Every structure is written in structure tokens, then in C-alpha cells.
Amino acid sequence: MLKFASSESVLLKLPEGVRGDVRIAFKEFRRNGAACTAVIINDTTYRVVCREDSNALVVKDGADLLRVKMGLECVEMERCEEDVAEMVPEIRLDTIDDEKHYLPRDRLEIHHPMSETEHKKLVKKLQLIKISKKGKEYVGRVEQKLLLDVLLLTRSLLISNMELKREFEEIFPRELFQIVENYVENEKVNQDALNKDIITLLKKTSASEQEFIRSMKINGMNMGRQAG
User: Fold this and answer.
1) Which of 66, 52, 65 lies closest to 10 in space, CA to CA?
2) Residue 105 belongs to what domain range?
3) How many angstroms separate the CA atoms of 76 and 73, rounded?
4) Which among 204, 201, 181 is positioned nearest to 129, based on CA atoms?
């Protein structure tokens, strides 16, 4: 409960399952042109809404009864990953180190507030890369053809048992190695996940089924691994 005066308070109902000591941070954001408020509780972001019974609530504080000036509750934050992906600009090889071609992270969170944990998960899922310039963080989305080249090179280096990071950065800028790190589990690259995403990208970048099959054969991919 947040008190504004000795006889009035704001009541924030926490989500089910939240127990013990919690870390709370409020953020403002915009949705459909309107100003909204989000609350980050531990590592999860919620949208704050006003309860329907807001003006009828009374709570006990020790021996006193306090009238609730505003009753608030947390609802699940709806975040469309496709909307985030569309908002983040595509990065080409020749723009990889130029922040003007990226989206500032703070601008992204004006529309999509999130905790640090949620941000890391989203960056990994959408295959985004990050750069920092003068203490400011930017995010970008690697174009599909370049992303495919990155994954194919990674697969080739793994097959050749070469020193992955050093050999990779002799061919591509080090910023792109962030993509490779998305596949690392227990200090090893998950080659099944890597192959699955390569096949998905080969499908997306092929103009026809015949071209897709040809690309699979050229890159030595097993047709039995085709992603759905």
C-alpha cells in the first residue's frame, strides 16, 4: 500500500504468487497514443490499471482505517514480439557499427517496457544485436540473408573443429558473434537448434521449393531435419 496522506492511500494489489520481499519499479510508456504506467515486480513487467471498486475500498493500517484514494492492480503485460521486431530496424553488414541505423533501447522501452531479464530473453528470441556508443545502448535486427550467412559460417567452423570465436571474427565483425552466443548452452553450441534455424531461414529466403531443396543440398543439410 502506498500512502499519500494520513487518511488516504493508494492500494496496489500484487499479482497472485508474489510473496515475501519484492523489488518494485514504475515506468511510464505509451500505447496507442495514450500514456500508461507499468510496474516491474522482481523480473516481470505488468500494466497498472485502476480497479472498478477503487472508490469503495477501505483498508486497515494498524488501529486505523484508511480510505483508499485509488485502487490499482497489476495485469499481464501484452507484448507482441512481431510489433517489437517491426520497430527495430534491420542491420546490414555495412551498417553494423553505425548507431544511426539502430534503435536506442530507451526509445524501444517507451512503447515496450520490460525488465532486464525480459529484455535479454527478447533479444535472444528475436536474434537482435546490441551496441553501445557513448554510454547509450542501441538494438538492431540482423537482416535475414546476413543472419543466414552467420549461422552457416558457425556451422562450418564447428564441423571443421576450428577455434570458433577467433575464426568467426576474422570473417565477420565481432558484433555479430552475439548471434552465435544465443546458441551456447553449458559452454557448447547447441547444433540441433542451430541447424533448425538454418533450415527455417533457407525456407524463408528461397523463392521456390526447388530453390530450397537445392540450397539444402549445397549447404550439406539433412533433409530429414526440416523444420515445420
Assistant:
1) 66
2) 81-142
3) 10
4) 181
Sign of CA dihedral 48, 54, 59, 65: positive
* Entry pTM: 0.79
Overall residue count recorded for the chain in this entry:
228
- In this predicted structure, the answer to whether residue 228 has a pLDDT above a threshold of 70 is no
190-to-15, 155, 222 alpha-carbon distances in Å: 35, 10, 16
Same domain, 150 and 138: no
Distance CA 67, CA 55 (A): 8
Q: Which residue shows C-alpha cell 577467433?
A: 166
Q: Collapse the DSSP code of 141 into the 3-class scheme (helix H, G, I; strand E, B; otherwise coil) and give the result.
A: strand
Same domain, yes or no: 71 and 13: yes
Q: How do 44-50 and 128-133 pair as beta strands?
A: unpaired
User: Number of folded domains in the chain?
Assistant: 3
Question: Is a pLDDT exceeding 60 seen at residue 125?
Answer: yes
- Given a cut of 70, whether residue 171 has pLDDT beyond it is yes
